[in-house]
From TrEMBL:
This is PBSX family phage terminase large subunit. It holds the Pfam family Terminase_3C. It comes from Lactiplantibacillus modestisalitolerans. Residues 24-229 form the Phage terminase large subunit N-terminal domain. InterPro entries: P-loop_NTPase, Phage_terminase_lsu, Terminase_L_C, Terminase_L_N, Terminase_large_su_SPP1-like, Viral_DNA_packaging_terminase. Residues 263-405 form the Phage terminase large subunit C-terminal domain.
Length: 430
C-alpha cells in the first residue's frame, strides 16, 4: 500500500491539534461560523481509521436524515482531499463508510432513536470513537449518556483509548452542553472545552470574512455566537419558549393551508424564503423549507422559489422592493406574488400576533432557527427593555411574518387598517 502523508500541520489549524495529540475522553468544540471545526473533525475521523486498526466511528446528529448531506459528504470530501478517497467504500443504504483494507466502519445515526445506536456491533475492531455534530440540536442529555455508556469494552491495543468529539454553535447559554463540558464546577472529568472562530480557518474567501466582521458592527448579539463563538444569550428573546426544532413529514401538513414569505437582501443581508403550513385550530405553524442566501439576483430568486416548490402557493414579499416584485412576476413569471402589507406599527403588530402561535421548525430550516435564537427586544439608553424588537437578525422572521399575513391581517382580500390591526391583536388578549 502507498504511504499516506499525514502532515497535520498542513491539514489543520493549531486550534485543532488537541484532536490529534490529546487522549482526553471528551473534546467539546464550540465555535463560530466558518471556524472549520466540521472539516477538522472529518480529518480526525479519517486519520484515526488509518492509524489505529481497532477504531470504528459513530457519527451522531439529532436527526438521521440530516447526515447524508452534512457529515457523510464532508468525510467523503476530506478523504479525497487527503488522497485516500479510493481506500474507502461509501454506501447510502445503510449510510456507512468502510475502510476497505480492514473493514473498519463509520456508522451514521440519529439521536431521535438513541436505543438503536447502542446495538451497533462492528465486525472488525471496536466502536470507540464518536462525533456529535451540530450538538446544539441534541435535546436530551440522558439520551447522550445512554449512547456514551454503550461505548465500552477492552481495546485490543494496550495504548488504545476511547474518545468523543462534540462540535456545535453555542446559540444559548442555557443548553446542557455548557454545564457538562464548559463550566468548571460541573463539567465532566477527563474533558476539555474549546472555542474556535473563523480566524482558525485559513480557507475562507475574503467576502465571507468581511460579512462576518460586518456583523460585529451591525448585529453584535448575533455576532456573539456566529463570529466570536461565544455563548449566546437567552434574555430578551422575542419568541422565547414558542419554537422548537423537530423533524416532521410532509404528510403531517398535507391538509394544512400553506404560503411563502419572501424578504429581499443582497450583499450582506440574505434573501430569505420561508415555506410554512399553518394549523389554525391548534395555533401551530410548521416551517418546512427555506432558502436563505446572499447575492441572489432576481432570476435566481425565481429559480429558488421554483426549486423549493413555491409555484402554486401564495407568495407574500417585502413591499419595499416593488421593482423586484414586478420583475419576479412579469419578467420571470412567478405566479401568485403579492406585496406584503405595510402601515403604522405593522411590524410590532405582526410580531405580537405571531406570538400567539407555536412554531415547529424542520431541521433543514437553518436561517430561521438561528434568528429565533437571536431575535431580541431592543433597549433604551439606560439599558431598559423596550416592547419593540431590535431591527436586526430578522430577515427570515420578516419573511415568515409576510407568509402569515393572510392569517393575521387580511380580511376579504384587503389588508387591515391600523385600528383594525390594533383590535385584532387586542382580540387575542395580547
Amino acid at each position: 500500500m502507498a504511504t499516506v502523508d499525514l502532515n497535520l500541520g498542513r491539514l489543520v489549524s493549531p486550534a485543532y491539534y488537541p484532536m490529534f495529540n490529546s487522549h482526553k475522553r471528551y473534546l467539546a468544540y464550540k465555535g463560530s461560523r466558518g471556524s472549520g471545526k466540521s472539516y477538522a473533525t472529518a480529518i480526525k475521523v479519517i486519520t484515526d481509521m488509518l492509524v489505529y486498526p481497532y477504531v470504528n466511528w459513530l457519527v451522531v446528529r439529532q436527526y438521521a436524515t440530516t447526515q447524508r448531506d452534512s457529515t457523510f459528504s464532508t468525510i467523503r470530501k476530506v478523504a479525497y482531499d487527503m488522497g485516500v478517497g479510493e481506500l474507502f467504500k461509501y454506501t447510502t443504504n445503510p449510510l456507512e463508510i468502510t475502510y476497505k483494507p480492514t473493514g473498519q466502519k463509520v456508522y451514521f445515526r440519529g439521536m431521535d432513536d438513541a436505543l438503536k445506536i447502542t446495538s451497533i456491533q462492528p465486525i472488525h475492531g471496536v466502536l470507540c470513537r464518536a462525533w456529535y455534530e451540530e450538538a446544539y440540536e441534541l435535546k436530551s442529555e440522558s439520551a447522550f449518556e445512554t449512547v456514551e455508556e454503550s461505548l465500552r469494552g477492552i481495546l485490543p491495543d494496550e495504548d488504545g483509548y476511547y474518545q468523543t468529539i462534540i462540535t456545535f454553535n453555542p446559540w444559548s447559554d442555557t443548553h446542557w452542553l455548557k454545564r457538562v463540558f464548559f463550566d468548571d464546577k460541573s463539567k465532566k472529568r477527563n474533558s476539555v472545552g474549546l472555542t474556535t472562530t473563523y480566524k482558525d480557518n485559513d480557507h475562507l474567501n475574503r467576502d465571507y470574512v468581511v460579512s462576518l466582521e460586518d456583523m460585529l458592527r451591525t448585529n453584535p448579539n448575533r455576532a456573539r455566537v456566529a463570529v466570536k463563538g461565544d455563548w449566546g444569550i437567552a434574555e430578551g428573546l422575542v419568541f422565547e419558549g414558542l419554537f422548537e426544532q423537530k423533524e416532521f413529514s410532509l404528510d403531517l401538513i398535507a391538509g394544512l393551508p400553506k404560503s411563502v414569505g419572501l424578504d429581499f437582501g443582497f450583499k450582506h443581508d440574505p434573501t430569505a424564503g420561508e415555506f410554512m403550513a399553518i394549523d389554525q385550530k391548534n395555533r401551530v405553524v410548521y416551517i418546512y423549507d427555506e432558502f436563505y442566501k446572499q447575492h441572489l439576483l432576481t432570476q435566481q430568486i425565481a429559480d429558488e422559489l421554483g426549486n423549493h416548490k413555491g409555484y402554486g402557493l401564495p407568495v407574500y414579499a417585502d413591499s419595499a422592493e416593488q421593482r423586484l416584485i414586478t420583475e419576479l412576476s412579469r419578467v420571470w413569471g412567478v405566479p401568485s406574488l403579492h406585496p406584503a402589507g405595510k402601515g403604522k406599527d405593522s411590524v410590532i403588530q405582526g410580531v405580537q400576533f405571531m406570538q400567539s402561535y407555536r412554531y415547529v421548525v424542520h431541521p433543514r430550516v437553518k436561517g430561521l432557527l438561528e434568528e429565533f435564537n437571536t431575535y431580541v427586544y431592543d433597549k433604551d439608553k439606560e439599558g431598559n427593555w423596550l416592547n419593540t424588537p431590535k431591527d436586526a437578525a430578522n430577515h427570515a422572521i420578516d419573511a415568515l411574518r409576510y407568509a402569515m399575513e393572510p392569517f393575521m391581517f387580511i380580511r376579504g382580500g384587503r389588508y387591515m387598517s391600523y385600528q383594525e390591526r390594533v383590535q385584532a391583536v387586542k382580540n387575542l388578549g395580547l
